[in-house]
Amino acid sequence: MEQRTSLDPVPRWVPVNGHALRHVGIHFDAVRAIGMLGEQIAYEIMQFTDFRAGPIVRSGIGGRGMYFLLPPDTASTFCWPPGTEALNRSARGVAFIGVPALHGETWPLDWRSRPSSEAPFVDAGLLHELAVKVTGVAGVNP
Questions:
Q1: What is the pTM of this model?
Q2: Integer Cα distance of 120 and 16 in angstroms
Q3: Phi, psi (degrees; rounded to nearest 5) at 75
Q4: Dist. CA 30–CA 70, nearest whole Å
């Protein structure tokens, strides 16, 4: 039986198998939220977008972070609430994020929401609004 190919183009920064580290700020910016906060924000944005939120990577180890992938150069345009952290190409250092393949063994990473042609990135404005709603705290300057 022949496998059906996806109608959505796979972004070039998604590895073919396993997972790979990608330099933040090149293909995407990211916002990290750890533990239950990350889970709650992901739940809210998935509900709001009818499960088409764009790329959200979930880590299964450590603090169990949730990484919301945004278009490049967008994370720093918002003041993120406590418990969330913008990752971009800033003077504060270099950040890398693990990105899983769309299929196969990718532990300890997996997709909470996959990139698609209609949602190649998470909407930064919506993510910020929902992060503020979930935390109950307005963003603070970095």
A1: 0.90
A2: 17
A3: -60, -35
A4: 6
